[in-house]
Amino acid sequence: MIITISASDATQYLGRATNVYYIADSDEMLYKAATAPVLHTITVRGGQ
Q: What residue ranges do the domains of the chain occupy?
């Protein structure tokens, strides 16, 4: 499983982190998507 998290403002990426996780064959059914993945956008407001 690959998970990527990005932070950006209106014009550029401020940071990105990607992690890779191993899933044991016996746990495969726990991670199969029944529907499309859920994406979340979190707005952060603050100073510079």
A: 1-48
